[in-house]
Amino acid sequence: MMNPETVNRREWLRTMIVAGIAATTIAARRTVLPVLADTAITVYKDPNCGCCKKWITHLEANGFKVSAHDRSDMNALKDSLGVPSALRSCHTAVVGKVVVEGHVPAGDIRNAIARPPKGMIGLAVPGMPAGSPGMEMGRKDRYDVIAFDAAGATKVFATHS
Fold it and tell me: What is the DSSP letter of 52?
């Protein structure tokens, strides 16, 4: 501890800056590290779909621990999870209490887990837009990630171009 009678302004300022950086680092680790740690996600997919496998690779590259299951009854699964018909794509996943439909980027999934919009039960990327994760094919279409609630109401969660 410094003696306040002998500390000059420069030493005091340096000490306060170092203390502030340390406090900020500790606070950031408490809020960011749980979100960055391996997050378990269960993916349900058609056994013959190649883009689903590419999307799984994208998730794994971004720190998700994927458990993949082939299903032939995807519409029944989507019905049971509350995925609106207009938002459906080729694969469906569940992470915690969040349903993920289609080619949603890993970063958007992490954002939804960390700060879920009020009432949201899921995120979806309808269809199979070129350039979305798993659909890389030389061009990149603009697409929206849509948040949806249990009643089927939707709102744009993120836009990618």
Answer: H
